[in-house]
Design a protein that fits this description.
The chain is α/β, with parallel strands linked by helices. It has one domain (7-183, 213-239): Rossmann fold. The chain is built from eight helices and seven strands.
Length: 246
């Protein structure tokens, strides 16, 4: 198994893409701390993993909560090898009607949360000689989507933060990359697909003629966490099947 013996934190790791990533990491031999504000049905995974998966409450917008998460992970599993900063939200609204509260929520979770998780993980990774940080971006970071100013902006910022962090942390042995999913049949993507009228418009933009699967995003994340990606740094890996977006 490509991640045997590794220890990972996955934020937003109890449902959606985060849950798929956490499950895939466990299947690849890693020990995983599934971190989120709500455990949902994560007990299914922790029981199946036989001690290699645990749940920890975290609010990625709260510095103390994030630092506590990293400490609890090291206390539980002995080290911290991989951080997957997946927690994120989307609040729809054109600029003229997007509320300041919704804007601040997206910035706090999607961007500040990535920063806080990175800042808290680096000392643990540095002390052990290195690690991997994988941030979840989106295809919308580089494409205009009407009504998604907050989401597009925060994900674009995540990609630049990823690139700068990759250069600064490389001397510490820490590789930083990002995964940018397209429309995935999970969460927001599934809601889009359920709207027949809207889906017909979007479906024509998929070179493969379908939305992606959560496990396809998880596979890309496993690669970036594995030894096979030892010379990949500062990269944004798009997982969108060949997305055509005007």
């Amino acid at each position: 198994m490509s991640l045997a013996g590794r220890v990972a934190v996955v934020t937003g790791g109890t449902r959606g893409l985060g849950r798929a990533i956490a499950e895939r990491f466990v299947d690849e031999g890693a020990s995983v701390m599934c971190a989120a504000r709500n455990p949902y049905d994560v007990d299914d995974l922790t029981e199946r993993a036989g001690g290699r998966a645990r749940y920890c409450y975290v609010d990625v917008t709260d510095e103390d909560s994030v630092y506590k998460l990293m400490r609890e992970t090291v206390d539980a599993f002995g080290c911290l090898d991989v951080l997957v900063a997946n927690a994120g939200v989307s609040r729809d609204g054109k600029v003229g009607r997007l509320t300041p509260q919704a804007w601040r929520e997206m910035v706090d979770i999607n961007l500040n949360g990535v920063y806080l998780c990175t800042h808290a993980a680096v000392p643990h990774m540095e002390s052990q000689g290195g690690g991997r940080i994988i941030n979840l971006s989106s295809s919308m970071a580089t494409r205009v989507a009407v009504g998604a100013a907050g989401y597009c902006s925060t994900k674009a910022a995540v990609e630049m933060f990823t690139r700068v962090s990759a250069i600064e942390l490389a001397p510490k042995g820490i590789l930083v990359n990002a995964v940018a999913p397209g429309v995935i049949d999970e969460g927001m993507g599934r809601a889009l697909a359920s709207n027949t009228k809207v889906w017909e418009v979007y479906r024509r933009r998929f070179a493969l003629g379908r939305a992606g699967r959560p496990d396809e995003v998880a596979d890309a994340t496993v690669f970036l966490a594995s030894a096979e990606a030892s010379y990949v740094n500062g990269h944004v890996l798009e997982v969108n099947g060949g997305l055509l977006w005007a």
